[in-house]
Amino acid sequence: MTPMLVRHHPLPGSVPPADGPGRARDWAEIQERMLVPLYEAVYQHLDVGTGTRLLGVECGSGLALLMAAARGAQVTGVDTDHARVDLARERLLPDSGGAGRRRGGTRLLYGAPADLAEATDPARPYNLVTAFQPIGCTPGDSEGLVPALGAAVRQAERGSAVVLAGWGPPERCATSAVLRVAGRLTERLRTGTTWRPALRDDLEEVAARAGLKPDGSGRVACPFGYADLASAVRGLFSTGLYDAAIRASDQATVEKEVVEALHPHIRPDGTVWMPNVFRYLVARIP
Question: Domain limits of the chain?
Fold first, then answer.
């Protein structure tokens, strides 16, 4: 499925701050849909449907959960980003009101998977855990994921699938050159967490540290398509991958360098198009 191009935004220079609801809205309206082919491929591979009880770790603004629910799955999402979970609630529980309210088998909570322990029905444990937030882009970006997976798998039945996602090889990801901007700026001042190319065994290493057994993998084309340059800047900044660079220098400098890196990907009609490949790993709970 080709990502839809998104509506026009003001020119670069008005990117919302990292801790505000505007950043989460940019993620939900611009960037999150770029991973739709990944979600679809995983759900098809695992035959997600009415018998699926899915726990989404770092569920963000809930698009992947919404797609699973449309296939008949019962979905639960948890994330530490309040603004993104608020948007997920607007999508999946528009009439619920109150944190964590359940409707039609859907549940959304702030926090970590461990916070779901008391609310999980031991008679109906999860049989699918997803962690779709791509790893393998900055050093240590999986550190918080390992304990989160540990807490999640304790609430799932044995043999259940756990899905991890990551960036593909840099030579297959046009966005890699744009992400290197963050690395150059943080390295220049020797501060922050810099960008690094994805490594072949990133996902397998996370699975091993979480005590999971690999059971297949796949690659999916996930092109990043934007209606214009401003939308591309806002979408990319909503990922949080440039936050360390902003702290190391300033937002105007980072925006300027990102815009320069995007210029080779601007098409004659003003849209921005960057082919990418993402990888997913299916592991099992022993």
Answer: 21-173+196-224+276-284
Question: From the centroid of its chain, how far is CA 109?
Answer: 17
For 186-239, how does the pLDDT look when each residue is reduced to its tens digit (9 = 90+)?
Answer: 665 555 455 555 566 889 999 999 999 999 999 999 999 999 999 999 999 999
Q: How far apart are the first and last CA of the chain?
A: 33
- Measured in degrees and rounded to the nearest 5, phi and psi for residue 221 equal -75, 125
Predicted structure pTM score: 0.88
Burial 137-155 (b: 16+ CB within 10 A, else e): bbeebbeebeebbebbbeb
Tokens 């005590």, residue? 211
Letter for the amino acid at 116? L
Unique residue bearing structure tokens 């591309």: 232
Q: What is the topology classification, in CATH, of domain 21-173+196-224+276-284?
A: Rossmann fold (3.40.50)
Residue 23's CB: how many other CB atoms inside 10 A? 22
